[in-house]
UniProtKB/TrEMBL annotation:
SUPFAM superfamilies: alpha/beta-Hydrolases, Pectin lyase-like. Keywords: Aspartyl esterase, Hydrolase, Signal. The lineage of its organism: Bacteria, Pseudomonadati, Bacteroidota, Cytophagia, Cytophagales. Residues 42-317 form the Pectinesterase catalytic domain. InterPro entries: AB_hydrolase_fold, BD-FAE-like_dom, Pectin_lyas_fold, Pectin_lyase_fold/virulence, Pectinesterase_Asp_AS, Pectinesterase_cat. Residues 391-570 form the BD-FAE-like domain. It catalyses: [(1->4)-alpha-D-galacturonosyl methyl ester](n) + n H2O = [(1->4)-alpha-D-galacturonosyl](n) + n methanol + n H(+). Pathway: Glycan metabolism; pectin degradation; 2-dehydro-3-deoxy-D-gluconate from pectin: step 1/5. This is Pectinesterase. Belongs to the pectinesterase family. Its EC number is 3.1.1.11. One of its GO terms (molecular function) is hydrolase activity. The active site is at D193. PANTHER family: ACYL-COA THIOESTER HYDROLASE YBHC-RELATED, PECTINESTERASE 53-RELATED. It comes from Algoriphagus aestuariicola.
Length: 628
C-alpha cells in the first residue's frame, strides 16, 4: 500500500519527491552519510543515478528511525547486489519495486563460507516492524552448497506482496517469537526446509516450488503460539523429476503448519509429513490439512500423528484469525495491517430473503433516479494510502437557494453493508428538496474503532468544503443512520472528542445540526443490548477487556456531548435501541428537541421495505423541516 507523498524532510533542503515511476522529473541526489537517520519523505533508489540514491543500503541508512509518518522507498529496476539489514528502529516503510522480474536483490553467501553459519547467510534481514515489501525478488545465488538464506525476517506486522524468494536450502527464514508475517501472491522456491522458523506466517495464494526431493517446511513454532505457518489457497509445484517431497518436518517439538485449500502436485508423498526422528505425536507437533486438492493431497495415507481438519474449522484459519494480535491490529492509518476482505453478507436481497419469512407482505424498495434529480456518484472524500473512501450526492437539478443536507450512513453490524443500501432513501429525500449523501466508511474487517467515526466526520468536512458545488447550506446539515450506521451517526453527531475527530487537512468543522437514528443502539454495555462478538470485532476487544472503549463508543454515555436535536425511528425490537431512553432524557433536560417513533410489527431493517419506507421518509422530512 502506497502512502501519500506529501511527507516532509525536517532539514533545510528543497527536494523533488517522486511518488510514482511514471514521473520523470529530475531528482536531487542525497548524501546518505550526512542525512543518516534524518530523512522522512519518500525516496527513489536507481542504479543509473536518476534517484536519490544508487543503492538500497544508502536509502535504509538515511531513513529516520521510528518515522512520524509512513514513507515509500521506490526501487527502480536493476540487480542490487547488496547484503541488507533493516534494523528494528526502522518502521512504517514500504519498499516498492517495479516488478519482481526486473527488481532484484541478490547475494551468494552460504553457511560454510568463512564459517559464517546459517543465520548470517541472508541477502535481506528484516528486524524492523510495520514494513511492506512489494514487487521484489530476493535471492541467494550460492547454489546447492548447504544452508543459504535469501530472506531472514523477524519483525512484526510484515507484509510481502507479489515477491519472489529464490534459493536452495533454507531459502526463507520466517522467524521471531511473536512475529506475524503475511506473504501474498508470492513465489517461493528451494530444496530442503526452504520455509523455516518460529514466526506466525500466513501464505495467501502463493506458489511453493520444490527443486529437489526433500522437505518444504521446518517450523519451530513456540509452544504458546496459536499458529505457526498457514498456507491458504496455495499451489505446490516441483521441478521435473522431483517426486518425493514432504510437506514439512518439525525443527522444534511444537511445530505448527497447516495447509488449507491448497493444490498439491504429485511430488508430495502420500504420508505427507516427516517426524525428523522426534517421535512426533498429536500432543506435540500440530500438522494439519483442510480440503487439500490435487494428486498430492491423498488424505487416506497421511501420518497418523497429523490432522485432517473439518470444514467447520475453516474460520480458525482465516487470515484475520491467524494474524490478529492480542491487542489492536491497526496500522498508522487505522487500517488492519494485514489487509481485509470485504464482507458483503448484509445486502438488500439477503435481508429480504431472511425477513420475508416472518413478514411475507414486505416488498424491497429499489428506486430509480427520476427526471429533476441529479446523481453524482463516487466522489472521493478521503484518501488513505492507496485506499479511497467515496460518497454519492443526490440533489435537485435546479437549485435556487442552498438546501439542507442529510448524510446517510448504512448499517451492517459495523462489518458489512454498502452505501448503495441508502440510495432509495437518498433519492426520495432529494425529491423532497434535500441534498442527500450516502457515505462509504471503513468497516471492522478493514479498520477498527474509531476509524469509521473519523471517516464520517471527514465526510461532513468535505461536504462543507464543497458546499457551493452541490448547493449545500453548511449551517443545516443532518446525519442519518440505520442500525450500526445509526450508532455511528449518533456518536459522530454528539461527540467532539479528539479521538473521534481524527486528523484532517480540511478547515470546516465536523459539526452537524441534527441526528436521525433508525434502530441503532446508543449504549453497548446495557441491559437491553445484545451486542457482543460483532461489537468486540469493531471495538477491539470485549467489554471485560476494554470497558473504557465500550463506554467511549456509546453515545448515551458520552461526557460533555454536543447536544443536537435527535429523531429516533425504531422497530419492534428493544435490543436495537439500547440506551435510547437514557439519552432522550438527557436531551430533554438540556432543552434539546427529541422525537421517538416506534413502528409496530416491523423487521429490524424496516427502512428497506414497503410498507414502512414511505412513512419513514415522512417522519424524517417532517423532523428536518421543523428543525431547519
Amino acid at each position: 500500500m502506497k502512502p501519500f507523498a506529501h511527507l516532509f524532510l525536517m532539514i533545510p533542503l528543497v527536494l523533488s519527491v517522486v511518488v510514482s515511476f511514471a514521473q520523470q522529473k529530475p531528482i536531487e541526489a542525497l548524501d546518505a552519510e550526512k542525512l543518516k537517520g534524518k530523512v522522512e519523505h519518500d525516496l527513489v533508489v536507481a542504479q543509473d543515478g536518476s534517484g536519490h540514491f544508487r543503492t538500497i543500503s544508502e536509502a535504509i541508512k538515511a531513513v529516520r528511525v521510528y518515522l512520524p509518518k509512513p514513507i515509500t522507498v521506490h526501487i527502480k529496476p536493476g540487480i542490487y547486489r547488496e547484503k541488507l539489514v533493516i534494523p528494528g528502529q526502522i518502521t512504517h516503510v514500504t519498499f516498492w519495486g517495479e516488478d519482481p522480474g526486473n527488481t532484484i536483490i541478490s547475494l551468494d553467501d552460504y553457511a560454510a563460507k568463512d564459517n559464517m553459519g546459517t543465520f548470517e547467510t541472508y541477502t535481506l534481514k528484516v528486524l524492523g516492524s510495520d514494513l511492506i515489501f512489494k514487487n521484489l525478488t530476493i535471492q541467494n545465488t550460492a547454489g546447492p552448497v548447504g544452508q543459504a538464506v535469501a530472506l531472514h525476517a523477524e519483525g512484526d506486522r510484515l507484509v510481502f506482496e507479489n515477491c519472489r524468494f529464490l534459493g536452495n536450502q533454507d531459502t526463507m527464514l520466517a522467524s521471531g517469537e511473536g512475529s506475524r508475517q503475511l506473504y501474498k501472491n508470492c513465489y517461493i522456491e528451494g530444496t530442503t526446509d526452504f520455509i523455516f522458523g518460529s514466526a506466525t506466517a500466513f501464505f495467501e495464494n502463493c506458489t511453493i516450488h520444490s527443486k529437489a526431493d526433500s522437505y518444504i517446511t521446518a517450523a519451530s513454532t513456540p509452544q504458546w503460539a496459536s499458529h505457526g505457518f498457514v498456507f491458504m489457497d496455495c499451489k505446490l509445484t516441483a521441478d521435473d523429476g522431483v517426486g518425493k517431497v514432504y510437506l514439512g518436518r518439525p525443527w522444534r517439538d511444537f511445530a505448527k503448519t497447516v495447509f488449507v485449500m491448497t493444490e498439491m502436485g504429485e511430488h508430495i508423498l502420500p504420508i505427507g509429513w516427516h517426524d525428523w526422528g522426534r517421535e512426533a505425536t498429536k500432543s506435540t507437533v500440530f500438522y494439519a490439512e483442510l480440503q487439500s486438492q490435487g494428486p498430492g493431497s491423498g488424505p487416506d495415507n497421511r501420518a497418523d500423528w497429523t490432522y485432517l481438519l473439518d470444514p467447520n474449522d475453516l474460520e480458525k484459519y482465516q487470515k484475520a484469525s491467524v494474524l490478529s494480535g492480542l491487542g489492536r491490529d491497526a496500522d498508522f492509518y487505522g487500517n488492519r495491517w494485514y489487509g481485509y476482505e470485504k464482507d458483503s453478507s448484509f445486502n438488500l436481497e439477503a435481508s429480504y430473503q431472511k425477513d420475508k419469512k416472518s413478514f411475507p407482505q414486505i416488498m424491497p424498495v429499489q428506486l430509480a433516479v427520476r427526471p429533476g434529480i441529479e446523481m453524482l456518484e463516487n466522489k472521493v472524500y478521503k484518501r488513505l494510502w492507496d485506499r479511497s473512501l467515496k460518497l454519492d450526492v443526490f440533489k435537485p437539478k435546479i437549485i435556487e437557494k442552498t438546501l439542507p443536507t442529510v448524510l446517510l450512513v448504512h448499517g451492517g453490524g459495523w462489518k458489512s453493508g454498502d452505501k448503495i443500501l441508502q440510495r432509495s432513501l437518498a433519492i426520495r429525500l432529494a425529491e423532497r428538496g434535500f441534498v442527500a449523501v450516502p457515505v462509504e466508511y471503513r468497516l471492522s474487517p478493514e479498520a477498527q474503532y474509531p476509524a469509521a467515526v473519523q471517516d464520517l466526520k471527514e465526510a461532513v468536512r468535505w461536504i462543507k468544503a464543497h458546499a457551493s458545488e452541490f448547493g449545500v447550506d453548511s449551517s443545516r446539515i443532518a446525519i442519518s443512520g440505520s442500525s450500526a450506521g445509526a450508532q455511528l451517526a449518533s456518536l459522530m453527531g454528539l461527540s467532539s472528542l479528539s479521538v473521534h475527530e481524527g486528523n484532517s487537512d480540511l478547515s470546516p468543522s465536523s459539526r452537524v445540526q441534527a441526528v436521525i437514528n433508525m434502530d441503532g443502539i446508543l449504549a453497548f454495555h446495557h441491559p437491553e443490548s445484545l451486542e457482543s462478538k460483532v461489537a468486540a470485532e469493531w471495538l477491539g476487544g470485549h467489554y471485560e477487556q476494554i470497558p473504557e472503549i465500550w463506554e467511549e463508543a456509546s453515545p448515551a454515555y458520552l461526557k460533555n456531548p454536543t447536544w443536537v436535536p435527535m429523531l429516533f425511528i425504531n422497530s419492534q425490537y428493544p435490543r436495537f435501541h439500547a440506551g435510547r431512553d437514557e439519552l432522550a432524557e438527557k436531551l430533554r433536560k438540556a432543552g434539546v428537541s427529541v422525537e421517538i417513533h416506534t413502528l409496530p410489527d416491523t423487521p429490524h431493517p424496516f427502512w428497506l421495505y414497503q410498507p414502512w419506507f414511505e412513512p419513514t421518509v415522512d417522519l424524517i422530512t417532517s423532523f428536518l423541516k421543523e428543525i431547519f
